[in-house]
Design a protein that fits this description.
31% of the residues lie in helices and 21% in strands. It has helices at residues 16-29, 50-61, 78-88; strands at 7-10, 34-41, 66-73, 95-97, 115-116. It has a five-stranded parallel sheet with strand order 3-2-1-4-5, with helices on one face.
Length: 118
């Protein structure tokens, strides 16, 4: 049951190096072979077009890792994390984000157990 449960990685962009770090983190540190990448956007202009293309590259590099992409209309927030956790049945401690920059609008503690990867 543990191995079948996937993890969620919140991606704010389509940076290939960041996506690769996330995939390597899952492969090296998690007891799963499933990763869902979630990208939040407010309007269609904010959708990162290269994200899907770069995830296809990561998917080819790591064939043992199943990668799914979920585009979510809405702002990244503790409330959105709560909704996704309930809807997708993924505990918050199975969710992670990359290192936030100084403009990140939330305290990590407010995200309810979402992990931070460097």
């Amino acid at each position: 049951a543990i191995n079948s449960r996937g993890v969620i990685y919140f991606s704010k962009g389509g940076d290939l190096a960041a996506l690769n770090r996330a995939a390597l983190y899952v492969l090296n540190n998690e007891l799963t072979n499933r990763m869902m990448v979630v990208h939040c956007f407010s309007d269609d202009e904010e959708i990162v077009r290269e994200l899907a293309d770069n995830l296809k590259i990561i998917d080819r590099i790591y064939p043992h890792l199943r990668i799914d992409l979920l585009m979510v209309k809405g702002a990244f927030s503790p409330e959105l994390i709560d909704r996704l956790s309930h809807r997708l049945k993924v505990p918050k401690n199975y969710m992670f984000i990359g290192t936030p920059d100084d403009r990140f609008p939330h305290n990590i503690e407010d995200l309810g157990g979402v992990r931070l990867i460097m």
